[in-house]
Write a structure and sequence with these properties.
The protein is an alpha/beta fold. It has one domain: TIM Barrel (Alpha-Beta Barrel), CATH 3.20.20.70. Helix content is about 35%, strand content about 15%. Strands 6-5-4-3-2-1-7-8-9 form a nine-stranded mixed sheet, with helices on both faces. The protein is globular and about 45 Å long.
């Protein structure tokens, strides 16, 4: 199940706790830096100018070849942006990873609103191993407040989640279907559980809860704006929380922006934690 893989990555083994650790187990690559949501809790809000260009496919092929040779076993075809904003590139990347590199595990997280059935099926055909939906609003009102966009996308996302399940059932694809949600408090949590039980959980293999991440050093600001208290850093999922320090994502998971920058941080929307430029380095 997806939670087993997540917990394996968020736990730092002793051999990684040194100045020259092995290659990370998993790497997320930003196929598209663009997103059609403006979520109140997301690091993308820190970008003064939203990027317009997706990752160069030749760069993607080179760096993933090098990752495979270095021992990386899992590649996420996303980072901070919404990869279904560039569906043709997304499918090409999945197909390359599976057919050319025989990458053992290729995964994707999406907000589902741009994941139209044709694009979902193309990803499944290309060999996508895991597709996880991020579902973080219980109704239109909360959706428009938190995601910052029209409520019609709330309904479209739920329709696409169901369509993905039906496509897999009809054609027998091997893609695992999952969903995660932020755990809120009180009445909002009850609303969330009701929505998930009716519109999401019947159409996924597993659902799990996440804390509200601070996504950088603006937790107090976000709490004031949204009325929810973020956690410190990325502590993993609710049922297997990790200590904020040392941050596991700097050791066991790589992060590459659409521009080819290697970041030490899983929330680095502004390139403040760049460790290298993969357009110039291996």
């Amino acid at each position: 199940m997806i939670t087993d893989r997540i917990d394996s990555v968020t736990k730092i083994p002793p051999e990684y706790m040194k100045a020259a650790p092995p290659a990370p187990k998993s790497v997320k690559i930003e196929i598209s830096p663009r997103c059609n949501y403006r979520c109140g809790f997301c690091a993308l809000r820190n970008r003064e100018v939203q990027p317009k260009w997706d990752m160069d496919f030749e760069l993607f092929k080179r760096i993933t070849r090098e990752m495979s040779a270095a021992g990386v076993k899992e590649i996420g075809v996303f980072y901070l942006g919404e990869s279904f904003m560039g569906p043709r590139l997304l499918v090409d990347c999945i197909a390359y990873l599976k057919s050319e590199l025989a990458m053992p595990y290729v995964f994707l997280t999406s907000n589902a609103s741009m994941a139209f059935p044709e694009a979902i099926e193309a990803c499944m055909k290309a060999g996508l191993d895991s597709l996880k939906w991020s579902v973080n609003a219980a109704d239109e009102e909360q959706f428009e407040k938190i995601m910052g966009v029209s409520g019609r996308l709330f309904h479209r996302a739920l329709e696409n989640i169901r369509a993905g399940w039906e496509l897999r059932r009809e054609h027998g694809y091997n893609t695992g279907l999952y969903a995660s949600s932020i755990r809120y408090d009180g009445a909002q949590q009850a609303k969330m559980e009701a929505l998930l039980g009716e519109r999401v959980i019947p159409y996924v293999d597993q659902h799990y809860w996440l804390p509200l991440y601070s996504m950088g050093a603006f937790a107090t600001e976000r709490e004031a704006q949204l009325g929810y208290r973020p956690t410190a850093g990325n502590q993993g999922r609710i049922d297997a929380l990790r200590e904020p320090l040392p941050c596991w994502s700097a050791f066991t998971e790589g992060h590459v922006t659409a521009e080819g920058k290697l970041s030490a941080c899983c929330f680095d929307a502004t390139a403040n934690w760049t460790m290298g430029d993969l357009t110039r380095q291996s």
